[in-house]
Design a protein that fits this description.
The protein is about 50% helix and about 15% strand. It has helices at about 15-25, 35-40, 55-75, 90-100, 110-120, 125-140, 160-165, and strands at about 5-10, 30-35, 80-85, 105-110, 150. The longest helix has 23 residues, at about 55-75.
Length: about 170
């Protein structure tokens, strides 16, 4: 049976890189980035963390599209590696309702210093630095409340992180 692995964490944690590398290593692997799906919305795009009806609708659109792609992929025998920012249990539950309880969930939670360093390397806008700190705090507060494997990637290479996820 194909695997469904969800990799979450704050911006700059390395979620997309890790999911891409895992998909490349799989005999049949698909990587799905929530950010890429989200950026398909052109007219009326809104930031996903805003507390507006439109932001909520777009969040649901992204999750539904990811779940549809995942189902299509697993039906054809592909392992699927999803990266998304899921700091709250209800966001994870949306995936579980659609994809089942067997999804494997990994929280990549490096130190704040490492996150800021990565954001600087990516030349992110200032709002992302503030949002990343808020999200890291939200993940940290929920780290023991959600059934996920937590990986502190502060001093791990991408390959070491992939090996931890692959060995589960």
């Amino acid at each position: 049976m194909p695997k469904i692995i969800v990799i979450t964490g704050p911006p700059g944690a390395g979620k997309t890189t890790i999911s891409m590398k895992l998909a490349e290593k799989a005999p049949k692997g698909v990587a799905i980035s929530a950010d890429r799906i989200r950026k398909m919305v052109k007219g009326g795009y809104t930031l996903p963390w805003l507390k507006t009806r439109e932001a909520k609708d777009q969040r649901r659109l992204v999750t539904n599209n990811i779940c549809d792609i995942t189902k299509n992929s697993t039906d054809l025998g592909f392992d699927v590696f999803i990266d998304d920012v899921l700091p709250k249990k209800d966001l994870i539950e949306d995936y579980k309702k659609s994809l089942g309880e067997d999804i494997e969930l990994f929280l990549i939670l490096p130190s704040e210093e490492m996150l800021i360093k990565r954001l600087r390397e990516r030349e992110e806008e200032e709002i992302m630095f503030v949002r990343t700190k808020e999200l890291r705090e939200a993940f940290f507060l929920n780290k023991d409340k959600i059934d996920w494997t937590i990986i502190d990637k502060s001093f791990l290479t991408i390959e070491e992180t992939i090996n931890i996820i692959s060995s589960k």
